[in-house]
From TrEMBL:
InterPro entries: GlpE_sulfurtransferase, Rhodanese-like_dom, Rhodanese-like_dom_sf. The keyword Metal-binding does not apply. Residues 21-109 form the Rhodanese domain. This is Rhodanese-related sulfurtransferase. Residues 102-120 have a biased composition (Basic and acidic residues). Keywords: Transferase. It comes from the Bacteria.
């Protein structure tokens, strides 16, 4: 179900699961490496919250970005920040990984080093 909070679109687990294969949407996990390695959505890259400002200018403003964290609180803050920086289609995964009941993968899979890594 879609909703909105403080100007940011909110997607629940069902909406995220439906859109994972949509290549026009970019999913970004903003948790810490230890959290990501314990279990993340397969194929979703890790860009820790503290590193987002280093990459935000290079992120594609024409794309939809869905930010993911443990519960939806940190990703909401990142989505708000992203929107302030011109990413008008920033979305928060409300409920975060605590609400995720789909497949997960452990270990480091895709760590963002260069901004372009977000889109690979």
């Amino acid at each position: 179900m879609r909703s909105e909070k403080d100007g940011i679109a909110q997607w629940d687990q069902e909406e995220v699961a439906k859109k994972l294969d949509d290549e026009s949407i970019t999913f970004v996990d903003i948790r810490e490496p230890e959290e990501y390695n314990e279990g993340h959505i397969p194929g979703v890259p890790l860009l820790p919250m503290g590193e987002v400002p280093d990459h935000i200018d290079g992120m594609d403003k024409e794309k939809t970005h869905v930010f993911i964290c443990r519960s939806g609180t940190r990703s909401q803050k990142v989505a708000q920040y992203a929107k302030q920086q011109g990413l008008d289609r920033a979305i928060n995964f409300d409920g975060g990984m605590l609400s995720w009941d789909g497949d997960t993968k452990t270990g480091e899979e895709k760590r963002v080093q260069e901004t372009s890594d977000i889109y690979k």
